[in-house]
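[step 3/7] fold_predict: job queued, chain A
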Amino acid sequence: MARIKETFDSRAWFMLECDDPNCEQRFDDSQWYAYENDLLADAKDEGWQIPYKDEHPELERDMHYCPEHRLPECTTCTNIMIDPTGWKDGQCPECIKEEIPIERS
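[step 4/7] structure written:
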C-alpha cells in the first residue's frame, strides 16, 4: 500500500510512498500528516502524481507516483497512461479517435 497509516496516541497519522516497485521515496518523510487530504494536496503541489481509482476504473486502488516515476501523460489532454494499449506518439486513444492534432513546440 502506498498510503501509510500509523496510530499514535489513539489517532491515525498518514504518510505517502511511491507506488513504483523500484522506488522507496516517501513524500516528506520528516513528518506525519494528521489529515489525509492535506497530505495528498501537499504531495500534488510537490509534483506527485495521484491517479484515483474512481477516475481510472482499471486501477485496483488509488496510486501515488513521486516526481521521478510519474506515468506518461497524453500530449493533448490530461489522460494518464496507465495501460499503453492504443497509445501512439504520446497521445491517448480518445485523442487519436477524435483526431486531435499533436502540437509541437
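[step 5/7] annotate
Strands lie at 3-8, 11-17, 26-27.
The longest strand covers residues 11-17.
exit 0
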